[in-house]
Amino acid sequence: MDLFGLIKTRDNLNNLLNDISLKQDNYTFNCKYIDNTLSVCGGSDLSLDNCFLEDVDYVLFLDGIMYNTTLKDLINKIKSSKLDITVLNQLIKQIDGEFVIILYCKKDLSLFLIRDHFGTRPLYFSIEENNIVWSSRCYKINQLKKHSLCCVPEERLIPKEPYTSFNGIWQVPPSTYLKICKGNLELICYNFWEEGDYNEFNLTKLHDCIEHTLIQKFTMGCKEIAIPMSAGIDSGILAFYADKLKLDYHVFSLVEVMGKPTVESKYIYKRIDRLKNAKSVNLIKCNNEEYEKALAEIYKPRYYETFRKSTGIIPIHTIFSSIKEKGIATVIDGTGGDELFHGYNYREQFHPVPFFPENWKKNNMFYSIYAVLLENTEHVERAGRFFDLQSRFPFQNRKLYNLSKDLIVKEIKKWPLRKFLFDKTNYGLPMKPDYDSKYGLCMDHFSKRKAQADIRLAFCKSHNITNYPHKQPLTCNLIPR
Q1: At CA 290, angle to CA 284 and CA 294, rounded to 5?
Q2: Does residue 10 carry a pLDDT above 50?
Q3: Residue 460 in 3-state DSSP?
Q4: How many CA atoms lie within 13 A of 94 on its CB side?
Q5: Torsion, CA 434, CA 438, CA 443, CA 446, rounded to 10
Q6: Residues of CATH 3.40.50.620 domain(s) within the chain?
Q7: DSSP state, 156?
Q8: Domain 204-462: which topology?
Q9: Tell me: the pLDDT tens digits for 421-441?
């Protein structure tokens, strides 16, 4: 789904959403206000009741999915809160899902643009003179008024958010909403990640929570699921727990790059031999043809609109293209396991990130939630959106974080997840890499420097420019420190 809207602050949101009509053919709501539109678009399998709701007092739009509530329940709770900020923050904080929510209160003419805890879904905004524009797509804002291109940070551990490649277009940060009321704008953080004690060994509650989350995200509203499986721990949990439940799931594994087997392919084949109930196993190659196809598509308007340096976007594009061809609508991805359970080889490099709250004093590793997690989630979400697939992230769960933050930190990366794979699935005896190695979508056998240069060239071609821009982005004084 794509969300798009524009309001004029001088009119104090008068007549916003005053004439709602529905086009059944493409699931577009034309919400006429000040001769502009807010559109919510979805595929043919989308339930209209799940993305839009209006009553006497409120209008709600949902881009994404909520696992523990419905729009009807949510709007009733919002009514009870009377839009008290403290109560509203607690209400939003309890939602489990991947979502952007647009909430409009007719009584006091206030609008709330809400992004989920981990920032799985995009939400852009721009302030143009006395206009505020928001969208789930950067290019839609840019269509209203052309914005110059700018350079965004490229350091591996520093997120490109809240900035984009368009000067003056920003993202609403994760765990935050933009409140617009009577011409006033305010970014409000509704969820602060709390510091843990790091002294817990017992995994019972954690593993129970993982099982509950997996079942919920595997089964809610979908008949079949696709699981991209590497030789890593996160994707192994997804595949072998789905196998244990005997679900209708399909495995997609990258085993060849540039004509040669990946370094993890031999372990992927061994894992595949252990799976008993997979509906299909799809072995994927990323060679020159797939490489060139990815470069030709990754910067199309409905894909990456902001420059991305990571070479991981190429194999992800190839895998999601294969999932689309197979006709499966829902993808379950393991992004988040590394961030919640400290799975990176460069743990010591994490540190507080500008423009995001400084939550962790004793353990900087959790700052990966504001850094590489945003980057890696975006790779999966944008590829899914481009191919009309819904991406779900079981490890990006607030309850899961609250349990993981107290666990003791060991030298063994992701030790709680390794225990889950061994004890809670039908995995069998661990293989040697399962004890301490880290694997994930390998892009072997080609030059990383060349790939990054090709990705940059693809960005330039998509915007009809010769050289990558070096202009620094405009700051936004709304972004909280």
Answers
A1: 120
A2: no
A3: helix
A4: 12
A5: -110
A6: 204-462
A7: T
A8: Rossmann fold (3.40.50)
A9: 999 999 999 998 898 888 877
- Tell the CATH superfamily of the 3-189 domain: Aminohydrolase, N-terminal nucleophile (Ntn) domain (3.60.20.10)
Number of residues written out for the chain: 481
DSSP code for 370: G
| Cα–chain center distance at 342 | 19
Phi and psi of 110, rounded to 5°? -115, 145
Cβ distance 405 to 196 under 8 Å? Answer: yes
Listed in order, the ranges of the chain carrying CATH 3.60.20.10 are 3-189
- 31 — pLDDT class (breaks 50, 70, 90): very low
C-beta neighbour count of 395 within 10 angstroms: 26
Residue 319 structure tokens: 């895998």
The side-by-side arrangement of strands in the sheet containing 169-171 is 39-40, 3-8, 131-135, 124-128, 169-171
Residue partners of 372: CB distance under 8 A and separation at least 6: 156, 157, 159, 338, 339, 344
Are the beta carbons of 93 and 5 closer than 8 angstroms? no
Q: At what angle do helices 204-219 and 415-424 cross, to 10 degrees?
A: 70
User: Taking a C-beta distance cutoff of 8 angstroms, is the pair 204, 388 a contact?
Assistant: no
Helix%, strand%, coil% for the chain, nearest 5: 35, 20, 45
List the Cα angle 260/261/267 in 5-degree steps: 175
Q: Give me the long-range contacts of 348-355 (CB less than 8 A, separation at least 24).
A: 349/157, 350/157, 351/157, 353/158, 353/159, 354/158, 354/481, 355/161, 355/162, 355/173, 355/479, 355/480, 355/481
Task: Name the band, by pLDDT with cuts 50, 70 and 90, for residue 2.
Answer: low
Which residues face 228 on adjacent strands? 252
Can you give the pLDDT at residue 308? 87
Q: Please, where are the H alpha helices in 327-397?
A: 337-340, 372-386
d(CA 305, CA 299): 6
pLDDT tens column, 300-338: 988 998 898 889 999 999 999 999 999 999 999 999 999
pTM for the whole thing?
A: 0.90
